[in-house]
Amino acid sequence: MRIEEEYKKTGYFWLPGKEERKIPGVLSIVDGGDIELEIVGHFNDEMDVLGEKDDLGRIIGHVEKDGLVTLDDCFYIQKNLAFGGISKSRILVNRVYSGAAWEKDEAVTFDSFAFSVDCLDSWVNISGISVDHDWENNTATISYARPERTVLLLDNGMSLEICFAYTPPGFPNITEAKITQRAYFNLKSEALRDIKEFISTAFKITNLMCFAMDEVVTLKNVSATSPEIQSDGGNGKIYRVPISIYYKSIPFSEKAPKKNWHEMLFSFGVIRADAQQVFNNWINAYEYLAPALNLYFSTKTGSQKYLDGKFLALAQGLETYHRRTSSETLMEPGDFEALVAGIIKDCPGEHVGWLSGRLMHGNEINLGKRLKRIVEPFKNHLGKRDQRTKILRKIVDTRNYLTHYSENLKEEAATGRDLWVLCQKMEAIFSLHFLKVIGFTDEEINGVVKNSHPLNKKLKEI
Questions:
Q1: Residue 172 preceded by cis peptide, ω within 30
Q2: N or C: which end of the chain has fewer CB within 10 A?
């Protein structure tokens, strides 16, 4: 999670149901979403502190400016015992809900969940700001009309809105008049849902933005509302209280990226007519492609610190992708089962277990054939036949060497720049397939390849 302004607030904290025992402390949230609470002493009685578990569960607090806060999934990372003196304890917090308090076992539920990601304004590329210049009379007129929100119905029962917030000019407008607009997503549900459902969907949408922008972008500005949390605004007006939410989300990049829409794989404008289907296709893909997607994104977010690890993750990801999208085998399952039965029948009893283990995956096609099938739909983008064959052979040999370190494969395995090129190729293959997954036609994919310089470069790298 992107924390754009330092969050460090003093307050009093207590365990649910024990409000009479408030402890002073400081709640800190740093960029990335790491949350820590430092308190004076600890929440346990001196007599039973050594016997208590470090897991605290939920903590309630009241901090400066924000008022009530709920800290969830908390546990000690340092518990000091003073025995009459002053000591401090440190507590790791997984989620913070700022603006309300929940009881010990009360479910945290909402029906709307708003968030943004880095570079979203550039990806959406819709502005309500217009400027008219009259150069002859030295005048300029700036006007603003907030763009209409886009509503997409998701298959999981939620709706996804692409919304726009704006800040009007301040006063006095003597030397500057400034209008600021920002785009954000808003997930809505007719029924209350557990916060984890919203977090899971927001994670998938954030990854879609990473893919679309060809950049690691980070979740930020998260808030949620519920009809159960309301405030009296006076004059008989009741309004919902927005609850700010903080947690350590992935993906995360330490440096906020800056990217224009024309530098991205595709922008909202490209998918606008079919946006609902694109978002649904991507979210639904996690039902069967989650392992492959996770392996791919691990190579984009810096989880793989070394090139060898990145290559292995991509190779495993492509193999997993094919396993999840194809049921192809070497022979018909019935024929293979009959063959195995015949082989085991003639095997000495003491070796049956060993032989059965060896034959368990004997009907699966090897990595080379899987890669060939994966490349086939996009072979025109990957060079001539002999070039493709060389690339696939090099991927297989390198994977086998880095997995088993067999000396006979050492000379065949790619190293240095050659290994980097193979990674670029595999990333490009993933990109082409992900475009297919979200519903792009062959013609539309050709258009992306033509207009996306980074993807084009990966495909043509030699």
A1: yes
A2: C
